[in-house]
Request: fold
Amino acid sequence: MKVVIPHMGQLDIACRGALRGLGIEVVSPPRSSNVSLKLGARHSPELACLPFKVNLGNFIDALNDGTKMIMTAGGCGPCRFGYYSILQERILQDMGYRFEMVRADEPDRLANLAKTLKDASGAISKFTAYKTVYFIYKRADFLDRIIKWGHFLRPRTSEGNKLSKLCDDAIAMVDKASSLKELRQVKKKVKLLFKDIRIDNAKKPVRLGLVGEFFMVVEPFANMDIERKLGSMGVEVTRGVWLSDWINDRFRFNPFKRNQIKLVNRIARPYLKYPAGGESANTIARTIMFAKKGYDGVIHIRPFSCMPELVAQKILTKVEKDYNIPILTLSVDEHSSEVGFDTRLEAFVDMLVRKRDKRLA
Amino acid sequence: MALKIGIPRALYYHKFYPLWHTFFTELGAEVALSPVTDRNILKRGSDATLDEFCLPIKVFFGHINTILKKADFLFIPRLISTEKEAYYCPQFFGLPDMVRVAFPDSPPILEPTFNVKGKGATIEGVFIELGKSILKGKSESLSAYKKALDAQAGFYSMIAEGTIPPDVFKKLYNNPLTSVKKEKDYGRTGSQTTIALLGHPYNIYDPLVSMNIIKKLMDRNIRLITTEMVCDDIIDAEMKRLRKPVYWASGREIVGAANHFLDSKGVDGIIFIGAFHCGPDSLLKALIEREAQSGDKTALLSLSFDEHSGEAGMITRLEAFLDMLEIKKRRGLTAS
Reply:
């Protein structure tokens, strides 16, 4: 059965190898582009947030290519994301597409994920479902590690193009691994490959935290590849959200890793007593953590009119003063121009570099 | 001297005011209510928030600004869920925190958390805690809460009879609400046009946000049914028909009522009022509009407001819609 999963960072790659064993073939829609976004936006409600439009563009592309089944996640609020799939299904039906949609309405619960997998592939046991989700976690964990290495190496090396190609190759290698054993072999190979990148230890990059709405942070198309851009400007980026953390916080595959949800809720509490859905508490808490670790600045990225992140943004104005850390908020929708975006990034980075040099001098 | 509790005339004031008012006055406190929304309040609200917030939130911050100096406490409940099926909008979760950031010199904030989805939390318990924070004992708070519940129930029954909330408030608290000038007879039926006016209570009943649409319709001798008047059974039944129930508290009511009226021919037309930048509205509006276009349904006018909306444009659209209903009726196209 061919199934399409919308692009969200490396989510489709993390799922593909794990679902292969169940007879589900995950197809990636064509890489999100301005064309597919325009198409998605044309059929979306005008004020829906950006992820809705990007996802819808992906679905249209995939259905045009002949895929008949969509797999997506839902949720039960309070953010809009949980209701995406209902409206997207309606829109696609109104456009005349014939397809089936399977969704995990409670992606936090394993039983619900198992049911979703069952809907897509026929009968599977709960144990198989658990094993599958575990494998997805292991893959996501390694993919995240590849990205982390990229974050560390990019500002310190002059071989930017080689590094980009290496990251892409490594991700493609993970994509091909369809068992835990193969994944372990890939890990060994990839680690050796990364040793090839020469780094210049004299370089002392500016350190920046990247926080915000989940989709915007992890999806390079939506955030206009902000991580690579910052990296090549000589900035070491640290992300505030990771796909592997999201999975692990819910299913505790790695019990030695701290539960990030509890941690960020506690740190954010002086500013936000009850998390306002989405990544609001995470955004505030990570900003505080970055400030305490001595980072030079924080970039907060969110879709235009995102409800939880707006609460966070309002509260960040106080965090910014209390912890004396510069914050740049970027609000993105389908009309955002990449040139304007780059200019703001460059100006912000220039300011941080100057500030740091002054402090060190 | 009695304690003064500041309550902004915004957001869920329009639905829960009888409950809050009775509770505080029963405990011997005085309620300082902010004035009716005007341009100046909206401007102050816009200055205190970010531009991407929705109109009702901006109005809310404006109201807070007007009562900052007039109250000993501000009452800003943190509404998360008051029924098992639904959440409020995420921005309500952070309201007290945002107010503290926007107005550092604000008086202490009473911020009871209403979350029946949480473990072991009851609404009764929240009110006892709330009473404790203004130094009242458990039994006192409990009896005040009982009376407050009665007041709220009385309010609901008056709505169910067909009186719209601003009129109920006028009767109960003699509030000078500008939306309705004179008492109207709601019971009339027959040839009178009936319109279902749907949207969040804080959009519909606020005279500035909705540009006094209630008065405009009533002046044209139109019978109104608002979201709050639709009984819960209808909403629940409509929710069961959906692929997935809507999980926002007033979103549930709006979509349920809209789907009900779109299919049944009980009303001549439906007017949906949304706020620009309202997250739930952006999706639900599309859902309702798509439903309205599928087959033979009741006529729907959907309006979206922000702080720049011009009143003339709204009147033109309203008149065109009402004319269309009139023509439809004359041709005998509506069954009622």
Q: What stands out?
A: The beta strands of chain B are 4-7, 30-33, 73-75, 78-81, 109-110, 113-115, 194-198, 223-226, 269-275, 299-305. Chain B touches chain A at residues 49-50, 52-53, 78, 80, 86-91, 93-94, 96-98, 101-102, 111, 113, 115, 242-244, 246-248, 276-277, 279-283, 285-287, 290 (CB under 8 Å). Residues 178 and 207 of chain B are 7 Å apart (CA to CA).
